[in-house]
Specification:
Keywords: Signal. The strands form 2 sheets. A 6-stranded mixed sheet has the order 1-9-8-3-4-5. The chain is 29% helix and 29% strand. Helix 1 (2-11) runs antiparallel to helix 4. By secondary structure, the chain is α+β, with helices and mostly antiparallel strands. The longest helix is centred in the last third of the chain and has 20 residues, at 134-153.
Length: 154
């Protein structure tokens, strides 16, 4: 299991891409796994990963009813985020439902600089971007995968 975690660390080190968006836009994130079913997961440090939904070939299963209004799935497990707000900023990835877990490349969603300035001016607040290093993401993903393995062993 230790070797597996280390291999995840090394293989996923450069698997984070940035996606810039504007406040209120709709965003589509691709899942690069060729699977029949996947989990879509959101990572917002310091919080633990959040499972958004499980995508089946027919329709998604939402792990929280609140996510139905915000997230949907298109062909080939593409995650659609409707009307993006600061709450949706973070790192998204899909994961297969089998053992051993297989993760997609991650997509870090954040606002364009002009959107941040507009938000600061209109709301008189400062939107703090989630400054996640690749190591934090890798360690959390590794912990999540170890947790899944532990649950499966039990």
């Amino acid at each position: 299991q230790y070797f597996f975690s280390l291999s995840v660390l090394f293989c996923c080190q450069y698997a984070v891409s940035d996606l810039l968006t504007d406040l209120g836009s709709n965003v589509t994130i691709n899942c690069d796994l060729d699977e029949k079913e996947v989990y879509w997961i959101l990572l917002k440090t310091p919080n633990p990963p959040t499972v958004i939904l499980r995508s089946f070939s027919t329709s998604p299963f939402y792990h929280n009813i609140i996510f139905r209004k915000k997230y949907s799935v298109q062909f080939k497990h593409r995650l659609v985020i409707n009307n993006v707000t600061a709450d949706e900023l973070g790192v998204y990835y899909c994961m297969n439902t089998k053992t051993p877990p297989k993760l997609s490349n991650s997509t870090r969603l954040h606002f364009t600089e002009s959107t941040l300035k507009q938000t600061e001016c209109h709301n008189h607040t400062v939107v703090e971007l989630i400054d996640q290093t690749q190591w934090q993401i890798i360690i959390i993903i590794s912990g999540l995968m170890n947790g899944f393995q532990f649950i499966l062993l039990i």
